[in-house]
TrEMBL record:
<dbReference type="Pfam" id="PF04993">
    <property type="entry name" value="TfoX_N"/>
</dbReference>
<dbReference type="InterPro" id="IPR007076">
    <property type="entry name" value="TfoX_N"/>
</dbReference>
<feature type="domain" description="TfoX N-terminal">
    <location>
        <begin position="19"/>
        <end position="101"/>
    </location>
</feature>
<protein>
    <submittedName>
        <fullName>TfoX/Sxy family protein</fullName>
    </submittedName>
</protein>
Amino acid sequence: MAYDEGLAERIRERLGTDPRIAEKRMFGGIAFLFQGNMAVGVTGDDLMVRVGPDATDAALARPGARIFDMTGRPMRGWVVIAGEAVAEDDALSAWVEDGQAFAASLPPK
């Protein structure tokens, strides 16, 4: 499955040149890892964000968000954001910051 390279590039712009960030192909798209922990990614035209179990309900209340479920087994702590919901830079920046903050709260891998 192809992924939205334009969305991936917009994420790269927000993450900058932080050496703790790595890119890895995952879930048929691309993931951005902070110290080895996935923070955000792109699958198809959508944004994946790791928000953590405690922030899942609040994240799902935001526009365009749905539970991450690729295999019929929903993954609590992960959400998928419809591409059109992150068309505005401020919305994308907020999600990227949330994903990076959660990944930064985890021990480095």
